[in-house]
Structure formats: C-alpha cells, structure tokens
Structure to design on (88 residues):
C-alpha cells in the first residue's frame, strides 16, 4: 500500500481513470453489438445507420487512447464489408 502522499494520489487517479475507461469500452462494445444485430437481421439500411454511429464511437475511443488506430481501422473495414455483402 502507498505511504507517500503523491503515491496515494496516483492510486486514486488510477482508480478513476480505470472506471472511466471501462465505461467507454463498454459503450463501444454496445454500439458494435447493435451493428452485429442489424447485420444478423439482414436490414441493410438500419445496419448502415448503426455502423455510422459505431464508427464515430470507435474513432472517439481512438482519440481517448483506449484503442489503437489500426485495430479500429480493421474493425471498421470488416464491418463495412459485412454490411456491403447484405442484400439490398
């Protein structure tokens, strides 16, 4: 356990940051699940609109430092390909 005042502060900051990051990652996963659900139902228009919101949420996670840009690019690319393969 931390004994120095600055170390105690760092522990508090880490707890707050961890909770915030968990909430953000959970939010991203929720948006990705929504896109997957629309793809499974086969509704291309709804899947496309869900994809747009998920994409912006993924890019926001990149800007917050939660995910790497290449990871997000890969996810976006694969989701986009799945949506394009849906019958119109």
């Amino acid at each position: 356990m931390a004994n120095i005042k600055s170390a105690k502060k760092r522990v508090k900051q880490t707890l707050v940051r961890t909770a915030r990051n968990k909430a953000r990652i959970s939010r991203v996963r929720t948006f990705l699940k929504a896109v997957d659900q629309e793809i499974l139902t086969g509704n291309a228009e709804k899947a496309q609109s869900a994809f747009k919101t998920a994409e912006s949420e993924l890019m926001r996670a990149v800007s917050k430092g939660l995910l790497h840009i290449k990871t997000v690019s890969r996810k976006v690319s694969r989701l986009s390909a799945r949506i394009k393969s849906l019958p119109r």
